[in-house]
Write a structure and sequence with these properties.
about 375 residues, five-stranded mixed β-sheet, two-stranded antiparallel ribbon, 14 helices, elongated
């Protein structure tokens, strides 16, 4: 069953990562627009101090936003609230700075030559910013207000000649927010649906790698994992060991007590193997029938034999009571170890483990036999 909390956390992570990516353009667009407007109108000669102040602010905010975007994973995973506070503050600060520039350009004489390009740029920034940040209604409402409120306030104060522009700004702000509400809803519905599909696909894939009776990994998963571990051991130049475990006289158990008891023996052995094989890097699988396999990366022959012996002894302690029947069983274990060489496919490791298991069976069962592949290389 898919956990709702897990889904919600994943949605928040992806949405915030998406917001961070979308803000990449916004990190430098203010500085770029400001430089173009300032240089084309020769404003740097008319008001050099004002140009320097706005330029430095836009540069500083751009650096901060780029840093937050590049460090999203590190900051957000450690403290999501901290990242939101820092990022939202940076976004709103940049928008408010531009909003102040827009307001000043409508009220201060020296800035008025810039008013038309600044107003046009403001309209574009409101639309682009609101769309980019639509996953967050709070962030979107904040930037719309930061862009338009300073100018709206100045227009209302300066008199009736700007009343039409003031009304247009109000209508524009309301329209943008209503549009973003629809985008916001669609975004989150689509995101949730996408994550649910991924989770269900991953769950189905996981189920396809499991053995239905024992809950262990199946033969297909074993074959795929062994190939990966061969490549890993070859790259890292480490040992790789393999255990083949087989229930002794299993056919006799099935014939005498029935397949239901035989299946229960398999399940109890599987549970015992899970308890004994605890490293996350190790793989326990049902190889077929009453035979099980354990892949042990970074493990030499001596350590693998010790682990096999521990398993063999613990199997004899498994509860033998099955309803009205009392059935104890033992296992034979074949161990092989190898430090893979170029060209190894895993076949030699499997054959050696199988031969060691065969030797354990022929030597009386309920014992461990081992074979190092390296010792048999020419």
């Amino acid at each position: 069953m898919i956990n709702d909390t897990e889904i919600n956390n994943e949605m928040l992570l992806r949405a915030n990562r998406d917001i961070a990516k979308r803000s990449s353009t916004g990190s430098y667009i203010y500085l770029l627009l400001w430089l173009v407007i300032m240089l084309l109108h020769g404003f740097y000669t008319a008001a050099p101090k004002s140009c320097l102040v706005f330029t430095l602010i836009f540069i500083l905010l751009a650096v901060v936003r780029v840093g937050l975007v590049l460090n999203f994973n590190r900051i957000y995973r450690k403290n999501p609230l901290l990242w939101k506070i820092l990022f939202y503050s940076a976004v709103w600060s940049a928008a408010l700075t531009w909003g102040i520039l827009c307001a000043v350009s409508t009220a201060v004489d020296i800035f008025k030559p810039l008013s038309l390009p600044v107003l046009i740029s403001t309209a574009g920034l409101v639309g682009g910013g609101a769309t980019s940040f639509s996953p967050s209604r709070i962030l979107t409402a904040g930037i719309i207000s930061a862009y338009l409120f300073p100018t709206e306030l100045v227009l209302l104060i300066t008199g009736a000649q700007h009343a039409s522009v003031s009304i247009i700004f109000i209508i524009y702000a309301i329209a943008m927010y209503l549009i973003i509400l629809t985008h916001h809803k669609q975004y989150w519905l689509g995101l949730k649906y996408s994550i649910l599909i991924e989770k269900q696909a991953a769950k189905l894939k996981e189920q396809n790698t499991l053995d239905g009776l024992t809950g262990l990994k199946n033969r297909t998963y074993f074959d795929q994992t062994l190939k990966k571990e061969i490549k890993s051991a070859l790259r890292l130049e480490t040992d790789l060991s393999l255990l083949f475990i087989d229930i002794d006289h299993f056919k006799k158990i099935n014939d005498q007590y029935g397949h239901l008891v035989g299946d229960e023996c398999l399940r109890r052995l599987s549970a015992g193997l899970k308890e004994n094989i605890k490293r996350e890097t190790d793989t326990v699988a049902r190889y077929g029938g009453e035979e099980f396999a354990v892949i042990l990366p970074h493990t030499g022959i001596e350590e693998a034999v010790n682990m096999a012996e521990t398993i063999r002894q613990n199997v004899m302690k498994i509860d033998p009571v099955y309803g009205d029947d009392k059935v104890s069983f033992t296992v034979s274990i074949g161990v092989s170890s190898n430090r893979p060489q170029p060209g190894d496919t895993g076949d030699m490791l499997v054959d050696s483990a199988d031969n060691a298991l065969y030797e354990a069976k022929n030597s009386g069962r309920n014992q461990v036999k081992s074979l190092s592949v390296n010792s048999s290389r020419p």
